[in-house]
Design a protein that fits this description.
The protein is α/β, with parallel strands linked by helices and 369 residues long. The protein has 2 domains: 3-205, 3-Layer(aba) Sandwich (Peroxisomal Thiolase, Chain A, domain 1), CATH 3.40.47.10; 215-364, Thiolase/Chalcone synthase (Peroxisomal Thiolase, Chain A, domain 1, 3-Layer(aba) Sandwich). It has helices at residues 18-26, 55-74, 105-114, 129-142, 159-168, 200-205, 234-247, 265-278, 292-295, 302-316; strands spanning 3-11, 33-34, 45-46, 83-88, 121-123, 148-155, 191-198, 212-221, 256-258, 287-289, 318-319, 340-341, 346-352, 357-364. The strands form 3 sheets. Strands 5-4-6-7-1-8-14-13-9-10 form a 10-stranded mixed sheet. A two-stranded antiparallel ribbon has the order 2-3. Helix 4 crosses helix 10. The chain is globular and about 50 Å long.
């Protein structure tokens, strides 16, 4: 697997410009704000993307704008019929719209809005949907089904999602503090992120700028429960080892990891156990960072957003701080409350979703690229 990443686009609570949002993350910016709710919730805080309209309308608009930005960043035409689109979400806006009977109709509307001739492939693997869309896009290219795939995830905050996570007690009462001893849950975010993947030959033939290479991808499912992961982290280890096998790299080659870092005790425990097992004996440990403290947990979009953060970290040799981290719960090399430098050319993004879905995306970048 050697899909070239030639275009990026995202919409986040900190803005829409790729470099501007990245600089804000490095500076420790926080996108969390209070948002009124008709329900009694564990927390009023969310990380929202400013926009108006009902949830599905906002979902379609955000996805269309981000796709358009990614096509433009890669120097490609949205109307190109040779390009395939893969879009992921969790429930999108459907939980708040009882008349909705399809988790694909919104994606059809997105393609129509940007003038793309094909229906997108739609992925709904809970919180790993954005990462799984990237994995599927790379597989389409590897199988010769297309030369270019634009893929990613999008999700929006809704009243039903806020109420659901509050009722499940997965929502924090005070703040999202990933991997901190005092963590007590996640806070919802929203956003969209799209990556343009190309075969190496296609990118070379048109002299495309290459951000990084998607060198490996792996997935697994722990089948432990609908909302709680297997605390051993076995499926995270399996997904990561599959990604390493695809890439031909070993654990010691990984310089940086964008962790799922949801802030829930169960997820953080499983992920920390997996990272400790995976990188036992490596020297130095990879630098681990997590961005949900700044951007919230954007559910079906988070895997694509965090894939972009790994690519940018590899480009700049920098990782942002983990907001709220004061007393780390593991011995991993965590960047506490400050931006950290690192050297290396390989990094990975981990996503853990409800239903046991786990996905690992592994990116590499040539020195000087």
């Amino acid at each position: 697997m050697n899909a070239q990443v030639t275009g990026l686009g995202w919409a986040t609570p900190l803005g829409t410009g790729v470099d501007g949002v990245w600089r804000a993350l490095l500076d420790g910016a926080d996108g969390m704000r209070e948002q009124p709710s008709p329900h009694r919730l564990r927390s009023p805080l969310v990380a929202a993307v400013p926009s108006d309209g009902p949830p599905t309308h906002r979902l379609v608009a955000m996805a269309a704008d981000t796709l358009t930005a990614a096509f433009a960043d890669a120097g490609l035409d949205c109307h190109d019929e040779s390009v395939r689109i893969v879009l992921g979400t969790s429930y999108g806006g459907d939980l708040d719209d009882p008349a909705t009977t399809s988790l694909h109709k919104w994606a059809h509307a997105v393609a129509g809005r940007i003038g793309h001739p094909h229906d997108p492939i739609t992925v709904t693997t809970a919180c790993s949907a954005g990462a799984d869309s990237v994995l599927i896009g790379a597989e389409l290219i590897a199988a010769g089904r297309c030369e270019v795939a634009v893929c990613g995830g999008v999700d929006v905050i809704t009243d039903a999602k806020r109420l659901g996570h509050s009722a499940l007690s997965t929502m924090s009462t005070s703040g999202l503090r990933a991997f901190d001893e005092t963590h007590d849950g996640m806070l919802l975010g929203e956003g969209s992120a799209m990556l343009v993947l190309e075969s190496a030959d296609h990118a070379r033939a048109r002299s495309a700028r290459v951000y990084a290479t998607l060198s490996g991808a792996g997935s697994a499912n722990d089948a432990a429960g609908m909302t709680a992961p297997d605390s051993s982290g076995t499926s995270v280890v399996l997904a990561t080892r599959r990604a390493l096998l695809h890439s031909g790299l070993n654990a010691e080659h990984i310089a940086v990891v964008s962790a799922h870092g949801s802030g829930t005790p169960l997820n953080d425990t499983a992920e920390a156990a997996a990272l400790t097992e995976l990188f036992a004996g490596t020297d130095p440990d990879p630098l681990v960072f997590a961005t949900k403290g700044a951007l919230g947990h954007s559910l079906g979009a988070t895997g694509a957003i965090e894939a972009i953060t790994v690519i940018l970290a590899l480009r700049d040799g920098l990782v942002p701080p983990i907001l709220g981290l004061r007393t780390p719960m593991t011995s991993l090399a965590l960047p506490a409350g400050k931006t950290r430098e690192f050297s290396g050319t390989a990094g990975m993004s981990l996503t853990l979703g409800f239903g046991g879905f786990t996905t690992c995306l592994l990116f590499t970048r040539r020195p000087g690229l």
